[in-house]
Amino acid sequence: MNPSSSVKVRCCVVGGGPAGMMLGYLLGRAGIDVVVLEKHADFFRDFRGDTVHPSTLQVMDELGLIDGFLKLPHQRLQKMDGLFGGTPVRIADLRRLHIKYPFIAFMPQWDFLNFLREEGRRFASLKVMMNTEAVDLFRRGDTIAGVRATTPDGAIDIEADLTIACDGRHSTVRERAGLEVEEIGAPMDVLWFRAGRKADETENLFARVEPGKMMITFDRGDYWQCAYVIAKGEHDAVKARGLQALLDDVVRMAPVLRSGIADVKSFDDVKLLTVAINRLKRWTRPGLLLIGDAAHAMSPVGGVGVNLAVQDAVATANLLADKLQRGCPTEDELDAVRRRREFPVRMTQRMQVVVQNNIISGALQGGARPLRVPLIVRLITALPWLQGIPARLIALGVRPEHVRSKAAPTS
């Protein structure tokens, strides 16, 4: 496939998700000639990651974007309450944190991404190319020199001093670069669907756990977003039981969904989200860096994936923006991003595995015996001052990043 055209930029960011759009914004703000490639025509898709945590809200504040951002439609969550085998539990209380934004904002990810794209239009050095899919890398010797992409008008070569892959857990760039992934594993998958919500329907429960079953519900204003957790590999068995059996289980666990569950008309309305936890052993090649889900896929435990991706983007701009003014950083300079971000990634994944192995796996195994609330959950519920610990880990993460990259002077 011969390209119909070519362009040259200082930095090519592959993928217009949270990591890619935030990084594009930060580099454009710094005056770096950067292009972001997004393979879809728009951002309007059913993402799993719609939680914007205080760490990301703080970044938006540091960029001077928070007022406009919080004008977008969203819901706020401060307390994480649940039912564990019928016993009320409180998992976290963000009100106990002494931070500027002690809440999680539930916002459609397409609104978040569109907001960054619109705000980024004021930077002449930033270009976002929609409907443009990176399909291969090209090299000069051992150095990655850019990407070949497809567009509705044909193929295009994008030469770049630095290519940064933010193209998700099924990264094409990662596969083309031959980077090795370390699989950590997860015992569950998630069935993701919506149920209608009436204006007078309110409920503060976040999680419900019963023997053999687990479900999370998010109040999204005019609908309930539902995550029904199943054991890994059980999707076919769930479908074999039939849609009505699934919906009956859902309504038994969450009676508040009874009136709106009719919105789920077939299994086409139920998306299977395959849960994976993995990370790269090496995040770089000469001329190439991977961040976000392309470098480390996270479990949905804690809902931290979007926010870790944003943190990666902030760290990348902090470490590389000045160096990009002069050309491509060396591979050792690129690897500074991994050295900065690997510890919080590893610690977060380790905590997710602990929750998976000690709470989720036991719940999904079911059995006739009553479900016992794990000791740690009982302690957190009984001693309210402990609720700030999981709240801090969820809200801010292990090593929150702050914007250090400079904004280019404006004329």
How many domain units? Answer: 2
Q: What is the CATH C level class of the largest domain, in words?
A: Alpha Beta
For the record, the CATH architecture of the largest domain stands as 3-Layer(bba) Sandwich
Distance between the termini: 42 Å
Described by its quaternary structure, the protein is single chain
Largest pleated sheet: 8 strands, mixed
In helices, the fraction of residues equals 25-40%
Report the sheet-strand fraction. Answer: 25-35%
Number of helices: 11
Structural class: alpha+beta
**The named CATH superfamily of the largest domain:** FAD/NAD(P)-binding domain
Alpha-carbon Rg, integer: 22 Å
Q: Let me know the number of strands.
A: 21
Average pLDDT figure: 91
CATH topology grouping of the largest domain: FAD/NAD(P)-binding domain
Please tell me what the overall shape is: globular
Task: Return residue spans where pLDDT drops below 50 for at least 5 consecutive residues.
Answer: none
Which descriptors would you attach to this protein?
411 residues; alpha+beta; FAD/NAD(P)-binding domain; 2 domains; seven-stranded mixed β-sheet; 11 helices; globular
Outline the secondary-structure elements.
Elements: E1 5-14, H1 18-29, E2 34-37, E3 51-52, H2 54-62, H3 66-69, E4 75-77, E5 79-84, E6 87-93, E7 104-106, H4 109-120, E8 126-129, E9 133-140, E10 143-151, E11 154-165, H5 172-177, E12 181-183, E13 188-196, E14 205-210, E15 213-219, E16 223-231, H6 235-241, H7 243-253, E17 271-273, E18 278-280, E19 284-285, E20 288-290, E21 296-297, H8 305-324, H9 331-365, H10 375-382, H11 388-396
Parallel strand pairs: 1-2, 1-11, 2-8, 5-14, 11-20
Antiparallel strand pairs: 3-7, 4-7, 5-6, 9-10, 10-11, 12-18, 13-16, 13-17, 14-15, 15-16, 18-21, 19-20
Helix pairs in contact: 1-4, 1-8, 6-7, 8-9
